[in-house]
Write a structure and sequence with these properties.
CATH class of chain A: Alpha Beta
Subunit structure (chain A): Heterodimer of an alpha and a beta subunit.
GO molecular function, one term (chain A): actin filament binding
Largest sheet of chain A: 5 strands, antiparallel
Keywords (chain A): Actin capping, Actin-binding, Cytoplasm, Cytoskeleton
Order of helices and strands of chain A: HHHEEEEEHEEEEEHH
CATH class of the largest domain in chain B: Alpha Beta
CATH superfamily of the largest domain in chain B: F-actin capping protein, beta subunit
Helix content of chain A: 25-40%
Number of domains of chain B: 3
Oligomer: heterodimer
Number of domains of chain A: 1
CATH topology of the largest domain in chain B: Aspartate Aminotransferase, domain 1
Protein name (chain A): F-actin-capping protein subunit beta
Number of helices of chain A: 6
Subcellular location (chain A): Cytoplasm, Cytoskeleton
């Protein structure tokens, strides 16, 4: 296996809660492959505030230039960057429209959170972009569950006459954490029935990635926002179901595979008894 | 970025090994081998990490000359001998190789006569509990040297299914202190699901209970049965409560993060989303953008 695929295999196995520190460690171990790593491993999105508009936006590798990040609202880098790339004027116009559209999408589905869209031209023609969405729930009390959702939708498109071909790669990172503590009274009095005191934490975290390629008609430039919008919406609906299935279904099944709530020994004896009875009747 | 030494790199990959999901330590080790590219330094360098991982994760060993498995943990470690571990059930100790996970060189271990009756009673009850609730479980029950009232029950169950991209581990440990009439314990569950993704369940659960005087006063087998009944009840309650937490996280947190559909119960009308004014404005520039490199 080569170094990059070993790095990616590692990131698929190590705890998603430690993704940032593990990516940093990998970059220290193999500095020559730092770019491959940051380009291929999705990391939790960082929240930043646009100094010009006061509006929040999301920071990731796609709007990064060194230590600076470009805001989709003011188009400015923070801290200012002289040679930080910005989309050409026509693409920037589309980027503004896309940011407005996905801001509405964000409000409709997330009822809060932050969204950002960044676009760039492709050397080989066409353009590419990323749609970012992030929301987190901060618990009002320590025993309420907390969680965060990060969507990273990267797309590429080329126009072919009245059609455009789209390739979408979507990653959703989801983290859910619940703390539990028992409030039952102590049973230091030996006459009282014994009760357990307990406390603990349950964390479900991770990411899933899916891809799709589709063709859609393009009437004018703005059609791209509609097309990508619909594709992202369908993908998120599909992936939300998938996440629900894996997070709440699959992991629970594995726990029940490890330990059975039912008495396995009793079930075994019952089966044996049944076999005996069947044998007895047959005789 | 400054280059770091081989020792520093091995130290960094040791941290990766310690984070390995259930049953995937060899996969992580293989990845790390490619990154380091120096098998000799790696194999000697990561031994401390492998040892730590095996002890923390309650790694299961096939006990030599016995037809059962036992748990390799810090409790099982023979005092003063780093790689020799005790299997109280067969009353033998064995050498354990932390890389190949093989046990060898069995030696007879003389148990403490004063604590052995209650220890073996706990072991018998623990094995019965294991049969009743675990599919692929191992348990080891230890007495504490120079003490007659202090015992450690360890349980581990593993399920590895790499073909379907999942694995899981259940670990529990209980310290039974007859003198203080107390059981303190913990349950740790890890599940990894990695088909086109990486999703992990990690739970930590601590529990403690004061033992009624009647339990302590009974015969070894009767009180051992009661201790294990308490543990079984606790673990089942915990497993059921996980279901409640799942329900709460699904209903509250998951839905609170992102709705399945907007309030309108319909998908977005993207024509309306764009707005007429905005749409009109961009339509005015129709073709201009399309002609500047967007067409192929």
């Amino acid at each position: 296996m080569d170094i990059v695929s070993s790095m990616l295999d590692l990131m698929r196995r190590l705890p998603p809660t430690k993704i940032e520190e593990n990516v940093d460690a990998l970059m220290q171990i193999s500095p020559d492959y730092a770019d491959d790593l940051s380009g291929n491993v999705d990391q939790p999105l960082k929240l930043r505030v646009d100094k010009a508009t006061g509006k929040e936006y999301l920071a990731c590798v796609y709007n990064q230039d060194g230590e600076s990040y470009r805001s989709p609202w003011s188009n400015e880098y923070d801290p200012p960057s002289e040679d930080g790339p910005v989309p050409p004027p026509k693409l920037r116009k589309l980027e503004i429209a896309a940011n407005e559209a996905f801001d509405t999408y964000r409000e409709m589905y997330f009822e809060g959170g932050v969204s950002s869209v960044f676009l760039w031209d492709l050397e080989e023609g066409g353009f590419a972009g990323v749609v970012l969405l992030k929301k987190f729930l901060t618990p009002a009390s320590p025993l309420e569950p907390s969680g965060s959702w990060d969507s990273i939708h990267v797309f590429e498109t080329v126009e072919r006459g009245r059609q455009a071909h789209y390739k979408l790669t979507s990653t959703i990172m989801l983290q859910l954490i619940t703390r539990r503590e028992s409030t039952e009274g102590s049973s230091s009095d030996a006459r009282e029935p014994a009760t357990w005191k307990h406390d603990g934490e349950i964390s479900l975290s991770g990411s899933m990635t899916r891809q799709t390629e589709q063709d859609h008609p393009v009437q004018d430039t703005i059609s791209h926002v509609q097309n990508v919008g619909k594709m992202v919406e369908d993908m998120e609906i599909k992936m939300r179901n998938l996440l629900q299935e894996v997070y709440f279904g699959k992991t629970r099944d594995v726990v029940h595979d490890l330990r059975s709530l039912d008495d396995l020994e009793k079930a075994r004896k019952q089966r044996e008894l049944q076999k005996e009875l069947v044998g007895f009747i047959k005789r | 970025m400054a280059l770091i030494s081989t020792e520093e790199r091995i130290e960094a990959v040791s941290k990766f090994l310690l984070q390995s999901p259930p049953g995937e330590i060899n996969d992580v080790l293989n990845d790390v081998r490619t990154l380091i590219g120096d098998d000799e330094s790696l194999e000697t360098g990561v031994i401390p990490a492998l040892q730590k991982y095996n002890l923390e994760q309650f790694t299961v060993a096939e006990v030599p000359e016995a037809h059962h498995t036992s748990i390799v943990s810090s409790t099982a470690q023979i005092l003063g001998e780093k790689d020799r571990f005790l299997d109280p059930r067969s009353k033998t100790s064995f050498l354990f190789d932390h890389l190949s996970l093989e046990a060898s060189d069995p030696q007879i271990y003389e148990p403490d006569q004063a604590s052995e009756p209650f220890r073996s009673a706990l072991e018998a009850s623990a094995l019965k509990y294991l049969d009743s609730h675990f599919n692929d479980g191992t348990t080891s029950v230890f007495a504490t040297p120079n003490s007659t009232g202090h015992f450690v029950i360890q349980i581990v169950a593993n399920k590895y299914n790499p073909v379907n991209f999942w694995s899981g581990r259940w670990r529990s440990e209980y310290i039974v202190d007859l003198d203080a009439r107390k059981i303190t314990g913990q349950v740790l569950v890890n599940v990894h699901y990695y088909e086109q993704g990486n999703v992990q369940l990690e739970t930590k659960h601590k529990a403690s209970i004061t033992l009624p005087a009647s339990i302590v006063a009974s015969s070894p087998s009767s009180s051992a049965n009661k201790v294990l009944a308490l543990i079984a009840g606790q673990e089942s309650t915990y497993q059921e409560s996980l279901g409640d937490v799942y329900h709460e996280m699904g209903e509250k947190t998951f839905k609170g993060l992102r709705r399945a559909l907007p309030l309108t119960r319909q998908k977005l009308d993207w024509d309306k989303v764009l707005g007429y004014k905005l749409g009109a404005e961009l339509s005015a520039s129709k073709g201009v953008f399309g002609g500047s490199g967007a067409s192929t």
